Amino acid sequence: MRQDPRGCSCPLNEQGSFTVEAALVFTVLVLACAFLMSAFLILYQQALLNGTAAAAAREIAALRSAGQGLYGELFTGTEEIGLDLNGGENEKPGQSFLEQCVQAAARARLAGSVVKPVRTDASVRIKRGLLTGNVQVVVVQEINVPGGQILCFFGGRKTLLLSGKGTASIARPAQYIRNIDLLLEYAESIKEKK
After folding, report:
1. Range name among 9-18, 42-51, 129-138, 174-183 with the lowest pLDDT average
2. Tens of pLDDT along 82-94?
3. Best CA proximity match to 172, nearest among 132, 121, 118, 117
4. DSSP, residue by residue, 123-165
5. Which residues of 50-81 are buried (b: 16+ CB within 10 A; e: fewer)?
6. CB atoms < 10 A from the CB of 162, how many?
7. What CA dihedral angle connects 176, 178, 184 and 188, to 10 degrees?
8. Which of 33, 56, 39 is nearest to 115 (CA)?
9. pTM, to two decimals
10. Domain boundary assignment for the chain
11. What whole-number distance in Å separates Cα of residue 36 and Cα of residue 162?
């Protein structure tokens, strides 16, 4: 029979010590699993945003490529469009067909999300050049972080901003033909002047 530090000759219960240690280890394991699951959910959400942005950029490029005639866009420049993807199904007045299509497709892709966002916004930048065009779509989503209240207590934020970016080229065969025709016409006029 062993004695405790106070000099008492009563037996020590070592099973109680094991139970306390097991409870502490189990708690740490559960918290580690919860942290890993939330990290994987955030990674999944990031991949979903990147896929949505890339799909929207491809769709805009396809609509822009198919919708232009021979003299559809003669000038270079940049066009910017803001899209609201927060879940309202009704369109804003004055929205173009392109905006409505992209908005509906992006909302459908984001509807399969496991994490429900606080807000979702998208911006579309369409750059037109003489020979090529480029579409860039950025989707930004604000999501609640698990344990965000604790982070807020320590001076952090309880939400996290995620963004996905996608780009696509606008292929317009008619634009190439028009530009080559224009260059040939200019070359002939220069030869005539000499």
Report:
1. 9-18
2. 777 776 655 566 6
3. 132
4. EEEEEE-SS-EEEEEEEEEEEEPTTHHHHHHTT--SEEEEEEE
5. bebbbbbbbbbbebbbeeeeeeebeeeeeeeb
6. 20
7. -170
8. 39
9. 0.70
10. 14-193
11. 18
